[in-house]
Amino acid sequence: MRCVGEISRPLWQNGPSPGQVYNFPSTSSNNRLATRSMNPITTGTSVLGIAFDGGVALAADTLGSYGSLARFRQCRRLMKVNSSVIMGASGDYADFQFLSEVIENKVIEEECADDGQNLKPKALYCWLTRVLYNRRSKFDPLWNTCVVGGLQDGEPFLGFVDKIGTAFANPHIATGYGAYIALPLLRDAYEKAKGKLSEQEAKNLLVDCLRVLYYRDARAFHKYDIAVVTKDGATVEGPFELDTNWDVGLLVKIGRAHV
User: Fold this and answer.
1) Which pTM does this prediction carry?
2) Higher model confidence: residue 205 or residue 23?
């Protein structure tokens, strides 16, 4: 018979206090809530892509914006996956670095297998749709819009995947603000050439679009990279600098309205 003042033991040894959760073996005693990325932090703007006769070209500037601050100016957002695949991404730069590391590990594993098989652009494109949709379904998305380009069976391929897994393939693609300003320029030039742009024409077209974006997009930058994949392999070139002209600013007069 216990005394009235004696403190009763818990219902079971090491049991939880009222309102708490039981700590099972091999688990942390800190009951931390799962965290989610509610907003991207350091971001990159538009990625442009176009298919030309015999290959694919991508272009993106090198600015990493911290909110509205042009904070980081050497964020390279284009990558060479292998000799036949290139990729670029807009959105959160940290998430792009994570994806890049995972893809690089996949490429290394395939090279170690030494079975004559390499990652192809359509395979990477399909894999990205599954990964991004999976993360979206967990309410923890990777805040990126990816563009995959390459050659498969001798034919150019260009694919688009956004952070919720929406995907499509098209010979001309633009992400971010470029989808509103640059994409009409890409589509017009591609249709006029009937899909037979040369490599140099495709590069010049991408540079012209980047110049327009630099004039109009507050998150764009005048330094950029260009990635190209052809039958001879894949390359990422840059950074280059846009040739811009701001003389029109001298014609703008800001006056004060008289009341």
Assistant:
1) 0.81
2) 205
